[in-house]
Amino acid sequence: MTQHTPARARSGQDPKPNATLYGGARTRRVTVRDVAAAKERGEKWAMLTAYDAMTASVFDDAGIPVLLVGDSMGNCHLGYETTVPVTMDEIAMLSAAVVRGNQRSLIIADLPFGAYQEGPTQALRNATRLVKESGVGAVKLEGGERSLAQTELLVASGIPVMAHLGLTPQSVHAMGYRVQGRGEEDAQLLLRDAKAAQEAGAFALVLEMVPEQLAAEVTRSLQIPTVGIGAGAECDAQVLVWTDMMGLTSGRLPRFVKQYAQLRETMTSAAREFADEVKGSAFPTSEHTFSS
Ligand code: KIV
Q1: 164 Cα to the center of ligand 1, angstroms
Q2: Which terminus of the chain has a smaller tally of CB atoms within 10 A, N or C?
Q3: Closest ligand 1 atom, residue 206 Cα
Q4: Radius of gyration of the chain (CA)
Q5: What are the residue ranges in the chain where pLDDT is below 50?
C-alpha cells in the first residue's frame, strides 16, 4: 500500500489517457480524462464503493478503475439508518484511508448531506477539503437543477464533479426509496436535469433506480458517461455498493443488487470456528506460539 509517484508524473508530462481503463499499464491513477476517453471508445467500466484502505487495496488488485467513497458508508459502514447523518469529518477521514490503500483507481468522494446545499461557496470549501486533505480526484453531489451553481463553481475551480440523479438517497425523507423518472413528465424532467449537469461541467452522471429505457435515452443524449445503479444495461458504467455485492449486508437488498460472494456467511463461520477453538483449547497450537 506504499504510495509512490510515477516517473511520468514526476517529470510533469501530461499523461495520455490509458489505452483501456482495465488493461492500461499500472503506472498512474485513472483520471477523468480516461473516463471521457472510455465513452468515446464505447468501453464499459465498473465502479465500486470503498470505505477503508484494505478494501481499496483489494479493488486495486482487482483492477476496478473507479472507487466511490459513497455516503452509503452511513448505512453500510457506520451503523446509521440512512446516508443523511454522515458528516464531512467522516467522509474526509475514510476518503484519505481509501486513497492511502489504492494506487491506481480514480477515487471520488461524496459531498454528504448538508455539505453543499447552502450554496456554491460552501460546496467549494468542503470539496476543496476532500481534494487537499483526503487526496481524492473528484467529488460527487446529488441533484440536477438545484446543484448546478455548485457544480459550475467546483468545475471552474478545477475540481471534477460527478452528478447523481434519479433516486438521491440524501432526499430519502422527501422521496422515499422508489424508482424515479417513470411517466413522460418525470422522464423529461430527468433528461433536462442530466443535460444541465453536463452543461454545468460534470464529468459523469450516476443514474440510480431509473427505468432502463430512460437511462438508455440519457446515455445516448450525453457526451459524458452515465453510471447506472438499478438503471439497466445501457449505461456506460455500473456501480454497486461493495458490501451489497459481496454478500456482507444483512437483510433485504434492492432488486438491482447482484451478489458475487457470500462474505457474511464466510466471516460468521470463521469467527464461530475461532471462538470454538479458543473455548476448546484447540487454538493456539505450538505452530502459533513462541518459545524462549
Ligand atoms: O453513496 C453511494 O454509495 C452512492 C452510490 C449508490 C452511487 O451514491
Answers
A1: 9
A2: C
A3: 7
A4: 20
A5: 1-15
